[in-house]
Amino acid sequence: MLRFIKVLGYSLAPDYREGDFVLIAKIPFLLNRLKRGDTVVFSHPVYGTMIKRVESSGAKKGEIFVVGTHQDSVDSRQFGAIHTTDLIGKVIWHIRQPGKAH
Amino acid sequence: MIHRFIQALDDKFGFEQASAHCDIPCGIYDPITAQIAAVTVVRMMDLIADLESKGAHDVSYHNTMSRYIAVKEEHAEKAKAEIRIIWGDFIKAQHIEKHPNVHEVTHKIMMLGSKARQTVDREAAVQFVEAINEFAEIFWSAKGMATKRVKSPYNPPLELVYPVV
Questions:
Q1: Domain A2-95, what fold?
Q2: Count of domains observed in chain B
Q3: Backbone angles phi, psi at A11, to 5 degrees
Q4: Measuring CA to CA, which of A34, B6, B66, B125 is 20 to 30 A from B81?
Q5: CB contact, 8 Å: A21 with chain B?
Q6: Distance from CA of B7 to the nearest CA of A (A)
């Protein structure tokens, strides 16, 4: 239900940086109410486990459009919407590295 | 403070990592470069055999032979390297689950590629091409694409696996 995940890469910079941790929850109540701006961790068949921001959900039932905040981010703009069944969890706590305020 | 505590937990237990990809991690992967390199190896072996059959062992012969051998070496190594990249960077757990023979095929390619460098064993080089074809079939299947086998439109006319696009 709850687990810690370590962030790699910079596509969610400057908010999320490599080495940050997130606590994610896989609770249907939360996952069914995702809204724009939420951060989610999901499994992608090619890219593996990813963390991205929700751009929109519900355009087609069971699908979510996710994006990074960095211009070079690899996200739904390349690989399309993700399925809600691939969600690993929603970020409920972001633990930033000290000394890297933004 | 909290970060340091969680970092200590991570050091001990090793949390899963989620990638916020920002580089270009995938996008362009294609085993065709390895397939072409492997066919080149067979072609060099044919040219080597042809040159040898002409009998002359003068300076020109040695020059040409050295060049054929150098290209054979280079392309065998290139094919191996390209396959290692796809295997190491693209292939993920779910692909392995679906194609459990991918490691065996990759290892076979490495062994046959080395043999192609060490010898002028044409049969082994043709097997090298075929092993890479097998890998290409796994790769395209992992990408959800069908494949077809077509004879290469150049010498030697060996069958190559192409995606049906």
A1: Umud Fragment, subunit A (2.10.109)
A2: 1
A3: -70, -15
A4: B66
A5: yes
A6: 8
